[in-house]
Amino acid sequence: MPYRLGQLKHLRTMASTHKYVVLGGGNAAGYIAKAFAEAEPPIAKDDLVIVGRETVAPYERPALSKAFLFADPPARLPGFHTSVGGGGTRQDPQWYEDKGIKLLLGEEVTSVDVDTKTLKTKSGKEITGESLILATGAAPVELTMIDGHDLNGIYYLRENDDGLKLYDALKANKDKTVIVVGGGYIGLETAAAANLMGLKVKMIFPEKHIMPRLFNEEIATFYEKYYESKGIELLKDGRLCSAFLPDGKGGVRGVLVCRGDEKVEIAGDLVIVGVGARPNVALVKDQLEMAMGGIKVNSKLESSVPGVYAIGDIATFPLKMYGDRLTRMEHVAHARSSANHVVGALTGAEDGYDYLPYFYSRVFDLSWQFFGDSDGEVTVVGKMDPKLVAFWVKDSQINGAFMEGPSAEETTLLRAAAQGRPKVDVESLAKAGSVEEALAIIKGSL
């Protein structure tokens, strides 16, 4: 049946073509917008469109597990829109309009054709780009295979709406018990926030110590003792969350943990689950070359299909400083850095992505930073009084550098050591009588 003129006009308005299309409205997308807005010449009006599922403009996601929960008053949008976390302007929706950047928010993308670089949304929109940048981030691993996973009172944290729900639950349960499942970033940061908000906290995780992918047992012990000094109970080393226990009213009353043949019920009034994340690649995983659970890209962050790029959590990229070893990193520093790099690649920069791995966390009055690679023999100096420093050394070269409570000058030294990878005498480093002496040895090696 032929279309009427009005119907044809409606169809035309549902399809659009742009020079650059970004799929994903998270932190990385905000930094893409920033980089394009600062480029010379600046991006033309409507050349860039960002398509996101959340209904809010890109924001600094790390705030959700920190000041969003425990601060008084708590951090709320528009206060932490990108790019305030990176020292830039707060990019609220008006900023995007002023820069001529189109935001399509609250849009669920149902299909992606990487060959034509076309997205289709549930609402009927069809968006095509000359270049497509995939910035879909990662989603929390949900324990859907565990009995009771659908009970009320079980929380995950990834998005603004998650944070609002968790905040309300923590406020409503002051002086009650929260169980935190997971001993990594989210587990540690939400446990600290809940403690500061006046709840009793029990952490459950199967590993021998917290942060097992980065901390060795010696480093972890210092932080575990600190958490215990705050009244946080740590149930670790084989204790798995095997069931969420119902209260008979549709809510959760605790978890069942197992250690060998032992089964123990741990009581709690709500549960926070932070057991990792998985890259959001379902829409493209059968169309692009994949590696390590992410989209394999080259040094320009371009995928196996020309003109299609991937950044942030979903990109599996070559680490130039480690002989182009492939890696995938879920961290805001990489999200920001890869966003800047992909814009450079699209606007003519020739340099490959040369990223120095970086991680940090701030909980209570603690604040640590890590640069480099956690491969090699670890030498720890200091006893958190108030500082501690550690270096990973492989083949007499520094591979990674960690410090609790570094000053700006010390942070610069840590970064330089991890980047420069100088030779160092491990025996002399191990004999250092203080953090300052250890840092002096490292400084002398550069």
Structure, described:
The protein has 446 residues and is α/β, with parallel strands linked by helices. Helices cover 26% and strands 29% of the residues. It is built from eleven helices and 26 strands. The chain has helices at 5-14, 27-38, 67-70, 93-99, 160-172, 185-196, 217-229, 332-346, 408-420, 426-430, 435-445; strands at 15-23, 48-51, 102-104, 109-113, 118-121, 126-134, 138-140, 154-155, 177-181, 200-204, 233-235, 240-246, 252-259, 262-267, 270-273, 277-279, 290-291, 294-296, 308-310, 315-319, 325-328, 358-363, 366-372, 377-381, 388-394, 397-404. Strands 1, 2, 3, 4, 5, 6 and 19 form a seven-stranded mixed beta sheet that branches. The protein has a five-stranded parallel beta sheet with strand order 8-15-9-10-11. It has a five-stranded antiparallel beta sheet with strand order 22-23-26-25-24. Helix 2 packs parallel to helix 8. The chain is globular. The chain starts with a helix and ends with a helix. The model is unreliable at 5-13 (pLDDT under 50).
